[in-house]
Amino acid sequence: MAILIFPYDHTLKLLIGQEVSLTDLKLILLDDTAVFDPSDTDLTDVVGAEVHGNGWTQGGEPLTSVTASIFGTNGVKLDADDIEKTATSGAIGPAYYGDIYDSSTDKLLARIDFDGPKEAGEGTPFKITWDANGFFIATYPDTSV
Length: 145
Description:
By secondary structure, the chain is mainly β. The chain is 4% helix and 42% strand.
């Protein structure tokens, strides 16, 4: 299963301009009707496809311990604690996508494509495990001479 993360067109501008609160990032789950449009900017562009309930909070789960750090010699990365929510009173999902957004501004940052349905049956954890390199990497050209 190849899980991919796609930034929205404005994401880098928001990060560089410090218009994103790393302490207010959330992950909202989306169903198979969610179409990725990189020009979308706000949570209102995707909430009609939201998946929630049975242990997954409407509006998404918070990303905790979000850090920005140096990646290699010419980049930065964002990372966070993994997310794990146990399904109660039914299944969580299926979710086909997830969006990371800043809940203080409702600005979308990235779309996660789960490469098919992801769900957890009652009593089973729904897990999001971030890559060791984080969930967002931005690099810039090495311009040293």
